[in-house]
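Fold this sequence, please.
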Amino acid sequence: MSDFTNPIQRFSEQLDRLPGVKEIDFRIQGVYGISVEELGLPGPYADLPHAALRRTEGGRPNERLVTADVTFFQNHAGWVAVEFLAWWVRDLSRSGQDVQMRPIALPPTAWGTQLGRTLRFVIEFFYLLEGEENEPVLQEIDELADSLESCIDDYREVIRRPTKADWKSVDEVRKCADRNDPVAMITMAELYTEGREGLPEDETEAYKLYLRAADTGHPEGKLQVGVCYSEGLGVPADLPQAAEYFRLAAMDGLPQAMGLLGQCYEDGAGVEKDATEAAKWYAMGADQEDPVCLAQLGECYEHGRGVPKDFARARDFFMRALEQGFEEVQPALARVRKELGEK
């Protein structure tokens, strides 16, 4: 049988392009011979698609179940990724693919309070084979990777700039903020920052709202608290605190926070100066196609800061940033092209 990992790795890499995806795990297993009675038992069958298998009274002969187990960040990007993949799976199903997507459901009080601990779904593909080899399944996974790559490319801008909450009035936003809705808190903070919708400019009130949103665990709230500490907006400037909040938001998957944390390490702002650490965070943001991180990583390769000097790689990162609409990168792109002898 051919290499088991290549098609799976390709599919995983496409899933990982979605900013809201945190972890991915793949399984291929036979499901023939599992009895309906066994499906009712806890243990190895607990996470199987019970409804689908009960309809066929257990798996059919030579049936393979391919499972992509995806954990999402618990933020807006995570929900965007869930919604995008749900649409993709639905369209595959409409075209005749035996596929479904469902959440992993754990007991509400297992290991303490379980609800809200994870945002995790599985995408399950069913295949009937003529023999025992998995080669046909791997070929199908390779084609699925092509399909997902094409869809992500087609909707790249929509994924990067998804719909935000649409509020009817400031009073509605305020009411939701009072009910600890972090998105409403962030929206109110933005209104106070800009003095819009009849509200006064009030950086202190904005900082308090961002902090409340951050305390709920919302990544954007953490990012904005970091900005407040970095620039002294509504609170005394505190660079170590800024770096810490950027780190918290970056660990939640926000590429903008990755870029800002990388800048902290590059400048030694609130953390010990470390070019290698800066390049690492830029690279994490660049993996999510964040244009600023792409440009920053390009500069690292152009000047050999934290990574070996490599004009070709710098050019590639600058070009990717330009493709994302980051026009400011054009002078840097011209510089490295000149070094490479390109026009």
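The chain has a mean pLDDT of 87. The two ends are 46 Å apart (CA to CA).
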